[in-house]
Amino acid sequence: MSVKKERYLEILETLRHGLTERDEVMNLTFLSAMAGESIFLLGPPGVAKSLIARKLKYAFKDAKSFEYLMHRFSTPDEVFGPISISKLKNEDKLERSIEHYLPGTNVAFLDEIWKAGPSIQNTLLTILNEKIFRNGEQQINVDLFGIVAASNELPEENQGLEALWDRFLIRYHISSIENRENFEGMILNTENMYSDNVPDTHKISKVEYGKLQNQRDSVKIETEILDLIHHIRIKINECNKELKENEKQIYISDRRWKKIIKVLRTSAFLNFRKKVDLMDCFLIPHMIWDSPEQFELVNRIVKDCIHHQGYTIGVKITNIDSEISIIKNEIETETKVVKLTDNIIPKLHDGKYYRIPSFGRYEYMLKKTFDSIPIKGSNFIALYDSSKGNSMDYFVMKVNDRTVYISERNWQLECEKKAEKPKITRKPHELLIKEWDKRLKLIKDEIDKEITKIDNYVKIDLKNLTENIFVNPSKADIVLNKIEDIKIRLNQSKVKCDEIKDYYHSIEADISNSEED
């Protein structure tokens, strides 16, 4: 871990000190400020919302802070500063004295945010989105690192609060302390929780903060991350279609997705990486829910998509499987083997469609599309309705020749019986046996090389997965599952090689007693 990264980690550890069961929300609050974004804290009174906001300012050197409790009689003067009498009198200009008020500070805490009146809300929209405050004829670039807003309720629907709600990128629901030992430790603690314990040498200066904002955009977003986001969007759209009429849909604006990328880049940058990785993407659920009830759903969607996307590596699985198939076909030809079927095959409709019974409206799939997907392979493919005229793209994984995985469950294709064929075997020539032995050994050697390649990739390229300062290291297992799946497939191919070899070596003589085909 680099010295600078350790410094950020030490800042976080100091900010979290004294906070009980609040590590994650403190991490996210710090991250939102470093990204130049805002965070909304939802929770009842007395769960440390204001304490978290006050601790945040200690991360920054000479930071000015502003706190305000909104109420229905709040005026713009109380939030953005009073009208400057001297400016009005001497220069005939209507400007505010913003020092010590929100536009003149670096960290702001706005409690009961939804009680603000329209005049305050409209000005906040510009500050939150553009970091601009219009003061009379002037347009001021505010030095706000971030705004922490809080409330014990969500904004009411149809009250014109949708735009303001959308501006709060990171959202976190804080509940009361659950663990008894933690609760007792909190109530017996006599420390001053509001003291500044961050060493001056660790604090982030305005100059350093400004450089971070400029350098962060150099962090790369590679195809695997864009694919993941695309998968998440598709899954959310699928979930929205299945919601009941009275259930709230999950809505993520294009602006939010753009800002989500900004936060992911910030996370990677503060972890001293040159590209966003899948561990950073575990932050996404905190930026895409609209109600606490939705969080578990979006969290599961993101985890499932990360698990499916996983990390892949340029392994020659297809080539290896192809070589094994070639040898297997040669053996079957030379030994005159007609493989016994299990008598069940997918039923063909109209000469080119397979059917997925009970799946719903779109239950037909092109045979050539399904056949082109390897076992355990996956892709986005079109499913058709009964008229074969309309279609919808779904993410499909081919579990086996009769089973597909769609929308988080397995579906069986409609099947029909097929007549058995007799088995006829003949001992192959010794020269052929030696040739097959040699080729199978070469394949197994290639598999061993690929497994070593994967192990080295995990050890070297993915060694920092568990060191993300914003994400629980235990989540690295989800990321690595895809690589483990590849290793399992490679080892299965080795077993298949041994089975093939055992088979043709076990044929002692011509045991054919039937010439039926």
Question: What are the salient characteristics of this protein?
Answer:
4 domains; 16 helices; five-stranded parallel beta sheet; Rossmann fold; 517 residues; four-stranded antiparallel beta sheet; 15 strands; disordered C terminus; alpha/beta
Short description:
The protein is an alpha/beta fold and 517 residues long. It contains 16 helices and 15 strands.
Structural notes for this entry:
- With 517 residues, the protein is of the alpha/beta class.
- The protein folds into 4 domains: 1-216, Rossmann fold (3-Layer(aba) Sandwich); 219-309, no CATH class; 315-338 and 423-456 and 483-517, no CATH class; 341-417, no CATH class.
- 43% of the residues lie in helices and 13% in strands.
- The protein is built from 16 helices and 15 strands.
- The chain has helices at 3-16, 23-34, 49-56, 76-80, 85-90, 118-130, 162-167, 180-188, 206-215, 223-242, 254-270, 292-309, 317-334, 367-372, 430-460, 476-506, and strands at 39-42, 65-69, 107-111, 132-135, 138-141, 146-151, 170-173, 344-346, 353-355, 364-366, 378-384, 391-400, 403-406, 409-412, 415-417.
- It has a 5-stranded parallel β-sheet, covered by helices on one side. It has a 4-stranded antiparallel β-sheet with strand order 11-12-13-14, with no helix packed on it. It has a two-stranded antiparallel ribbon with strand order 4-5.
- Helix 12 packs parallel to helix 16, helix 13 (317-334) runs antiparallel to helix 15 and helix 13 (317-334) packs parallel to helix 16 (476-506).
- Residues 511-517 have low confidence and may be disordered.
